[in-house]
């Protein structure tokens, strides 16, 4: 077998063995430090939709049903509020953050 044929065969074999997995940030939020860093980065974006999605990701990492119960919401309404199409009320955001053991704090904006 020629070198070219060997390389082609190895390439086909390697492609057959490759398997991809869906990336989920919630899989990596396994400590309070990781969750705090993740939420701080989300807040730095100043993007309300991204912040709500980040809260939803953290809630999934901690267990959506448990977070919903602590926040006084149904699991379904929590999914809806923190989903990609959701637009949660500020009160909901605060209740979810409290249920997650997070606290919103304020600091002066840089350069203003």
Main attributes?
112 residues; mainly alpha; 434 Repressor (Amino-terminal Domain); 6 helices; elongated
Short description:
The protein has a domain at 48-102: Orthogonal Bundle (434 Repressor (Amino-terminal Domain)), CATH 1.10.260.
Note down, in words, how this protein is organized.
- The chain is 62% helix and 0% strand.
- It starts with a helix and ends in a 13-residue tail after the last helix.
- The radius of gyration is 21 Å and the shape is elongated.
- It is mainly alpha-helical.
- Helix 2 (32-44) packs antiparallel against helix 3, helix 3 packs across helix 4 and helix 4 packs across helix 6 (90-99).
- It has a domain at 48-102: Orthogonal Bundle (434 Repressor (Amino-terminal Domain)).
- It has helices at 3-17, 32-44, 48-62, 64-71, 75-82, 90-99.
- The chain contains six helices and no strands.
